[in-house]
Every structure is written in structure tokens, then in C-alpha cells.
Task: inverse folding
């Protein structure tokens, strides 16, 4: 089916307490692995492309491939701009046919974050595109850093969250509650009380970034409280690298083995995504 809009998959998730996985891609192998896993699990899926990954993939080619994959897929697919950093990037994404946008103004001061997000939301809504924004700052570096940790001083402030949602009219809010991009230093500790407070005062779908490395039980708990979208990348890049390391040990990686090795990487990414969808869907996701 053609690409669908973020709200069409998040609203049922929000109402019925499950989450939709948002998986980042940097090439078509990852795309195919994620779509195959989602079809196997009969689950809707969000395909993320992060602005930090733009230098690693040709956006025109990737978005064309994603649209084609969505058309062929038996499940709804959302094409989401992850961590868009400027007005220009968001405009580019809309022109390329993205059906969902995240604007990340988390490095700006509060008033400037509100001001810029408001403008982005106005433009996107006029084009029929939902917007996710971030308040507070998720730890680590998006797509880049090796180990991330979160700073409690930058956790999402509950009072600000009410004001922010009201002023900007965003469709979904990414929260900072101890979650972090990249691999976690030690066990992640999520602030569930804060999450519950934010959920109660905002009453819109909440997003958890840094989904890799959070124990399944904590993910389930976060979903039960109000997380409806979970971003996931490091778990896939991790298994890809581990697979390559294993293959070097076993075969020495000869030039003639490239197709088989890339196939193994793809299959292992698919397995990781299948597991995550099981956890995120919480046994409640609509089956397609
Ligand atoms: Zn993120």
C-alpha cells in the first residue's frame, strides 16, 4: 500500500497501549530486513532516516526505494524524518514524500525551541504531515556516539511539557527520562514516575529514543505508561558489526563471499527487528 501518515499508526497504539517501532535505515539491506520482519509479524512499521545519516545514503534513491517497498508490503509503512535539525531539512523531507517529521530543537533554549517547532508544525500540518518534537535532551549522540549517558538535569520537565504541547500543537513528543542514544554505559534507569506525569498532563503519544539496550521488561513498562513509538538503531548496527566480525574469524572474508555475508547481516538484522516488534506490540498491535 502507499506510505501512510504517522498519526494513522500511532493513534491506535496510543489508545490500546502498544508501541510502533521506528527503525533507522542507512541502506536498502536494512530497509528490506525491517520490512520483512514487520510483514512476518503483521505489524505496521516506521522507517526512519536521520539527518545525521544523510551523508551515508542518497536521499532521492533511498526514499524511492522506501516508497516502492511500502507499495509492495502487506503492512502500513510510515516514512519518518528522524532528528530533522532545520526548517530547510523539513521542507526537503516533505518534498521527497516523507509522511512524518521529527523536528529536534532540543539543543535550543526553551523559547527558541517553542518558536521554531511552532513554525515547523504550522508548515507540516498545512501539508498534512504530523510532527514529533523533543523536549529535554535524550543522552548520547544520535547515530554517532559510541556510549551514551543521559543527564538528569536535561530530563523532560513536566510543567514545560504541558506548555510546549499546548503552544506548538505537536502530534507526538520525544521525552528524556534516562534514555540515551548509542550503547548504554551500565544499566539504563528510566524515570517511570516522570513518564507517567508527562503522559497525564500532555495526553498525546510519547516517543522513546534510544530503544536499544533497554531491558524488555522496562520497555513493556514504559509502553504500559504511555510510550507509543520507540526508536531503534544501535541494536541493528550492533548485530551487523558482530556478524561481520564473526565472518572474518570463520572465513577471513574472501572477496567471493560478499553476497552471502551481506545476506547473513540482513538476516540477523531481521531477527533483531522481529524480537523488538514482539516486545513493542505488547500482544495488542493490530495485525495486518
Ligand atoms: Zn533519537
Result:
Amino acid at each position: 500500500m502507499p506510505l501512510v501518515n504517522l498519526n494513522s499508526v500511532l493513534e491506535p497504539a496510543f489508545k490500546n497501549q502498544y508501541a510502533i517501532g521506528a527503525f533507522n535505515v542507512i541502506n536498502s539491506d536494512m530497509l528490506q530486513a525491517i520490512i520483512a520482519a514487520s510483514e512476518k509479524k503483521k505489524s505496521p512499521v516506521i522507517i526512519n532516516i536521520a539527518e545525521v545519516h544523510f551523508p551515508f545514503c542518497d536521499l532521492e534513491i533511498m526514499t524511492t526505494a522506501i516508497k516502492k517497498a511500502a507499495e509492495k508490503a502487506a503492512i502500513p509503512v510510515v516514512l519518518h524524518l528522524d532528528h530533522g535539525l532545520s526548517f530547510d531539512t523539513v521542507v526537503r523531507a516533505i518534498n521527497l514524500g516523507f509522511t512524518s517529521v521529527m523536528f529536534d530543537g532540543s539543543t535550543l533554549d526553551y523559547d527558541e525551541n517553542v518558536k521554531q517547532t511552532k513554525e515547523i508544525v504550522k508548515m507540516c500540518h498545512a501539508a498534512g504531515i504530523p510532527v514529533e518534537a523533543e523536549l529535554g535532551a535524550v543522552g548520547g549522540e544520535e547515530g554517532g556516539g559510541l556510549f551514551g549517558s543521559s543527564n538528569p538535569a536535561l530530563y523532560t520537565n513536566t510543567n514545560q511539557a504541558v506548555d510546549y504541547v499546548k503552544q506548538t500543537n505537536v502530534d507526538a513528543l520525544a521525552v528524556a527520562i534516562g534514555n540515551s542514544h548509542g550503547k548504554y554505559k551500565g544499566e539504563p534507569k528510566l524515570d517511570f514516575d516522570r513518564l507517567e506525569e508527562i503522559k497525564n498532563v500532555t495526553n498525546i503519544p510519547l516517543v522513546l529514543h534510544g530503544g536499544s539496550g533497554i531491558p524488555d521488561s522496562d520497555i513493556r513498562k514504559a509502553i504500559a505508561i504511555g510510550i507509543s513509538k520507540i526508536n531503534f538503531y544501535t541494536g541493528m548496527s550492533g548485530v551487523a558489526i558482530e556478524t561481520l566480525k564473526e565472518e572474518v574469524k570463520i572465513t577471513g572474508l574472501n572477496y567471493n563471499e560478499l553476497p552471502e555475508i551481506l545476506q547473513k547481516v540482513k538476516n540477523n538484522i531481521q531477527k533483531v527487528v522481529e524480537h523488538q516488534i514482539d516486545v513493542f506490540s505488547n500482544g495488542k498491535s493490530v495485525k495486518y
